[in-house]
Automatic annotation (TrEMBL):
Entry's family note: Belongs to the peptidase S33 family.
Superkingdom in the source lineage: Bacteria
Organism whose genome encodes this protein: Streptomyces siamensis
Keyword field: Hydrolase, Signal
Keyword Flavoprotein among UniProt keywords: no
Pfam families assigned: Abhydrolase_1
Record's protein name: Alpha/beta hydrolase
Keyword Ribosomal protein included in the entry's annotation: no
Domain AB hydrolase-1: 74-443
InterPro entries (UniProt xref): AB_hydrolase_1, AB_hydrolase_fold, Serine_prot/Carboxylest_S33
GO molecular function: hydrolase activity
Length: 510
């Protein structure tokens, strides 16, 4: 059932909702070895912003304060999800920008409502992803029933545990929280930098509070037209393409991995590994579904490919399964923070927009996707399946179209799997006066501050002076992608030291 969101926050709203008055913040040191100047605070906001004097919840905030003589104000940052913690992202962004740029901003991280150190934090069903789960591909009625029952049980647990909270865990409520943060900071306007789902959060904030946006950076852009059911189906095709790109890379490096030089044959060996694990999970930890969990992160970030390829090679070539199990523990396993992130993910996505409530529709749509793009289709279907049984009604998505903003800067890789390219193009059209910077041939998710100097020069110019590029085509500027990784020089005992700090912060699925 679809219900409209409150009139003052509706898609056609011409006026911003009233901002709740919040107390000033008290910042305390919460430094880490990586981020020695990080500070933390908390702010109370209404659970229901339409009743500002009612029940309050607490948001956790972080800050790296500006050091320049003149400040450009707060720069709120968000890593996506929904369900991603933004506290350490503030430290990452402040330390990754050029020092002269970071010095001009108070970089503000926050855990959105329900997330991480905000209170209360959701954890609907601890251990929901404990191995070994049923095979994700419902090839038999029994497998389908087992997976449907798991999804129903998660939705039921959430409804029983958080009946009073779930109606207020959604994007619009999180956006109103952001404006409460702005008020607590004493700022008339905010600057905002969001990745992944954070791009949708930023676009909705800009829709509800256009007069309070100073600068807006959206990296790896959610398609707002497909939230959230259609977007997830679209991801399945894009992740299948990205998996094929990984397998082609493995074939290219046959001298290292000994899996053959024909990508199609390498792919056949991957699915043979999957079939074997479905019958006999590795060390009673990695079955077919866990194998998918392990390799899906490679679709977000190709820096993981050498570790995943080594694990694949070892297993397929008859060596011990230790490296495969290690890869699962490093990339696929869900811990307590992951349980929290997934709980918020489902709560937001299921509440934000309408989902089919008839399981027959899911079955039809996902088998159709699977026939063309099998890699992630059913794994992703079950990840989102609680929304078929969610205990709250759905809101109407916000139309983020906007003619009232200062210049906005968008970044998008052409082969991004998590937020496919069309999302960046769509938002570029919907935000009048925005500029789109494209990483041609790039497939990573979250592309700024990741080593591509071409992309980062546009980000730096924008944050420093508000300058954006202007081009004549679909994109306003195009950057070449970074080279694909090389195989590890020596086999790593663990992949725990792998990859990029940014991609660890971004997490997956959002």
């Amino acid at each position: 059932m679809i219900t409209s969101i409150p009139a003052d926050a509706s898609a056609g709203s011409a006026t911003a909702p009233r901002t709740t008055q919040t107390a000033k913040l008290t910042w305390k040191k919460c430094a880490t070895s990586d981020y020695p100047t990080l500070q933390c605070a908390s702010v109370k906001v209404p659970l229901d912003h339409s009743h500002p004097d009612g029940r309050k919840i607490t948001l956790a905030l972080s800050r790296v304060p500006h050091t320049a003589a003149k400040s450009q104000g707060p720069l709120l940052v968000n890593p996506g999800g929904p369900g991603g913690s933004g506290l350490t992202l503030a430290g990452f962004v402040a330390s990754s920008l050029p020092k002269s740029v970071a010095a001009q901003y108070d970089v503000i991280g926050f855990d959105p409502r329900g997330v991480g150190k905000s209170e209360p934090a959701l954890d609907c069903k601890p251990g929901h992803f404990s191995p070994v789960r049923p095979d994700s591909v419902p090839a038999t009625p029994a497998l389908e029933k087992a997976n449907v029952d798991r999804a129903k049980a998660f939705a039921t647990a959430c409804g029983k545990k958080y009946a009073s909270l779930l109606p207020y865990i959604d994007t619009v409520s999180a956006v109103r929280d952001m404006d409460s943060i702005r008020g607590a900071l004493g700022a008339k306007k905010i600057n905002y930098f969001g990745y992944s789902y954070g791009t949708y959060l930023g676009a909705v904030y800009a829709k509800l509070y256009p007069q309070r946006v100073r600068r807006l950076v959206l990296d790896s852009v959610v398609d707002p037209v497909g939230v959230w059911y259609d977007d997830n189906l679209g991801q399945d095709y894009a992740f299948d393409d990205r998996q094929k790109a990984f397998l082609a890379w493995v074939a290219k490096h046959n001298a290292t991995y000994k899996l053959g030089t024909d990508p199609a044959k390498v792919e056949a060996k991957w699915y043979a590994m999957r079939a074997a694990l479905a019958k006999k999970p590795a060390q009673k930890k990695v079955g077919a579904s866990e194998l998918e969990d392990t390799f899906i992160p490679g679709g977000y970030y190709n820096g993981y490919w050498p570790y995943l390829a080594q694990a694949f090679s070892d297993y397929a070539n008859g060596k011990k399964s230790d490296s495969l199990v290690q890869a699962y523990e490093d990339f696929g396993a869900v811990d307590a923070s992951g349980d929290n992130g997934y709980s918020v993910y489902t709560a937001v996505q299921c509440r934000d927009a309408s989902w089919p409530r008839d399981w027959n529709q899911w079955r039809k749509d996902n088998w159709a996707v699977y026939e063309k793009a099998p890699f992630m289709a059913w794994n992703n279907a079950w990840y989102n399946a609680p929304c078929a049984f969610w205990p709250t009604r759905s809101l109407r998505p916000v139309d983020i179209s906007n003619k009232s903003l200062p210049p906005v800067l968008l970044f998008q890789a052409t082969d991004d799997a998590a937020t496919p390219y069309q999302g960046g193009v769509t938002v570029h059209r919907k935000l009048r006066g925005s500029s789109l910077v494209v990483e041609q041939g790039g497939g990573n998710h979250g592309i700024t501050l990741s080593g591509n100097a071409c992309l980062d020069k546009y980000l730096t110019a924008y944050l420093t002076e508000g300058k954006v590029p202007h081009g004549s085509g679909e994109a306003d500027a195009v950057c070449k992608k970074l080279p694909d990784p090389e195989p590890l020089r020596a086999k790593a005992a663990s992949s725990s030291s792998r990859g990029s700090t940014l991609h660890g912060l971004l997490g997956f699925r959002g």
